[in-house]
Amino acid sequence: MPININSKLPAAKVLAQEGIFTMPFERAEEQDIRPLRIAILNIMPTKEQTETQLMRLLANSPLQVEIVLLHPATHVSKNTPIEHLNTFYNTFDDVKNQKFDGLIITGAPVEQIPFEQVTYWKELEEIMDWSLQNVYSTLHICWAAQAGLYYHYGIPKYPLEQKLSGIYLHKRTDDNSPLMRGFDDVFWAPHSRHSYIKKADVEKKSQLHILCEFGEEGLYMVSAKRGRQIFVTGHPEYDANTLKTEYIRDLTKGMEVPMPVNYFTDNDPKKPPLVRWRGHANLLFNNWLNYYVYQETPYDLQAIKNEE
Fold it and tell me: Which residue positions are annotated as catalytic (predicted)?
């Protein structure tokens, strides 16, 4: 089944070229079916690229999904034309009286800034609080995972000595979570960040459950409230060249950043990246949509409520 998006959205053209079926809102309204309503709060600077990455994964499912794009009203985007935001995006005020099957909150390159000093932090707090009563399952990605764990559970983030960038080997630590069904015992996934969450801090919270990790201190996925909140500290949505683009960008700015590990063929930045996380990304998003959104959300969205 397709995702329902504005046919004029740049992502629609890209997905069509890849053979991914999208459906215009007008046609979707003619079908006697209730699609899953998924809101995407996109706080990445490269919004058009992030839209495409997430929609590509959400479309790889037999479920029909209606996408609603959101951006913070309290932040002026420097990298996305205002015309694009005005045409394709909503603000929180536009949707705060609505309910959604799922919400995705993206990452943002603000890990080195204290949460309270991020320009749109107050607005994000309001949205995260609203999600408890108005969204069945919220998927937090990268910085949003750190922000969500901090806001909901008081778990702090810590600075890394150098940027964590590359493709890392993870291991599943839970065999019963529906989110992990079909996962290999070990799998690859991208990371790109300057801060981290300590495993010991998460283990102190009885409401939280660690699903998979990497290295000695690396957390990757944490679940809360039976999947009502999912925290993913990496970037499974990244496409082949995203880490390369970020690496070149940072070098151009004169930043001292490590070359992404396990990423370029033969660890040679002159050679193309080796994609080894695409299967994991598709399975993760499919499992989230199926087990935590489609099978659990009430048919009548007005019945959604917070579960303590």
Answer: 142 (acyl-thioester intermediate), 235 (proton acceptor), 237
pLDDT digits (tens, 9 = 90+) for 99-109: 999 999 999 99
- Residue positions annotated with a catalytic role: 142, 235, 237
Q: Which domains does the chain have, with CATH numbers?
A: 35-161+170-240+277-303 (3.40.50.880)
Using CA of residue 79, residue 82, residue 83, residue 88, what is the dihedral sign? positive
Give pLDDT tens digits for 221-239: 999 978 899 999 999 999 9
What is the model's pTM?
A: 0.90
CA 293 vs CA 13, 38, 178, 251: distances in Å? 27, 9, 12, 40
Q: Is 77 annotated as a binding residue?
A: no
Q: In the structure encoding, which two tokens stand for residue 75, read together?
A: 């932040």
Q: Is 192 annotated as a binding residue?
A: yes
- Amino acid making up residue 176: N
For residue 229, report the phi and psi dihedrals to the nearest 5 degrees.
-130, 130
What radius of gyration, in Å, describes the C-alpha atoms of the chain?
18
Three-point CA angle 292, 227, 278, nearest 5°: 65
Determine whether the annotation assigns residue 228 to a binding site.
Answer: no
If we measure between CA atoms, which residue out of 180, 168, 189 comes closest to residue 223?
A: 180
- Measured CA to CA, the distance from residue 228 to residue 251 in angstroms comes to 39
Residue with tokens 């320009």: 119
